[in-house]
Amino acid sequence: MSRAATTTRPTAPVAAPVARGPRRAIGRRAAYGLGLLPASAGVMMAVAVSGPAGGVDAARRHLACGGPVPPLRDRVRGARVMVHGLLGAVFGLLFWWLAGMALLATARGPFYGFVVAGPYDDAWGGPSLVGAWAAHAWAWVAVLGVLALVWWGLAALHVRLTEAVLGHGRRPWVLPVAGVVVLAAVLLVVGWVRQI
Predict the structure, then answer these.
(1) Which of 9, 95, 148, 169 has the greatest number of CB atoms lying within 10 Å of its CB?
(2) pLDDT digit string (tens) for 77-133?
(3) Count of alpha carbons within 13 Å of 24, Cβ hemisphere only?
């Protein structure tokens, strides 16, 4: 027996699994929220071009951006897919508004002295620039914390909404809560615009 016949081929090393840390989850949720408006427009366009199945496929692709995809049905009525797209567009506008609020809070938080010229007699932490800057920087940290929690909750609610409208999961609380969120978002944005 030859030596070549008795040797075995070396096995290829097994690749280590990709680490999924909190930074990756935060990035996925941020991308999910900012991509919801164009994705919802894509869902409605897909329904118009290729029918409800195309809309479900577009929704499935966007859900994959945010994490695990809930089981969606292949056959859904076109009206349900369009309602899902419209609700997603409102949620997407809310995500973009929240991103704008985060940018505004950043401009008026750690960069307070550059954005607002003195005197700082009536400012939080005034009358000195250092006190006003410190007070606004701490307020910025609190605002970003609240915005992050709202962002995370809205992304999770939209996934549950997609599951309820296009999938198999039927949680009775999802549609009323989504309706209240949409109504509150519209009233909040309208009130905020009128204040400006």
Answers:
(1) 95
(2) 777 778 888 888 888 888 888 888 888 888 777 777 777 776 766 766 667 777 777
(3) 6
Between CA 98 and CA 115 the distance in angstroms is 20
Kindly report whether the global pTM for this prediction surpasses the value 0.85: no
Task: Determine the Cα–Cα distance for residues 175 and 179; give it in Å rounded to an integer.
Answer: 6
Residue 127 is classified by DSSP as: S
- Segments in 2-120 forming alpha helices (H): 3-6, 22-34, 36-50, 52-66, 78-108, 112-115
Q: What would the pLDDT profile of 130-139 be if each residue is shown by its tens digit?
A: 777 777 778 8
d(CA 72, CA 156): 16
Among 99, 79, 77, 84, residue whose Cα is nearest residue 40: 84
Spatial distance between the Cα atoms of 164 and 80, rounded to a whole number of angstroms? 10
Token duo for residue 67: 């994490």
Domain boundaries, the chain: 23-195
Dist CA 148 CA 101 (whole Å):
11
Token output for 89: 């567009």
The SS3 assignment for 72 reads strand
CA pair distance 168, 187, nearest whole angstrom: 31
Tokens of 104: 């505004």
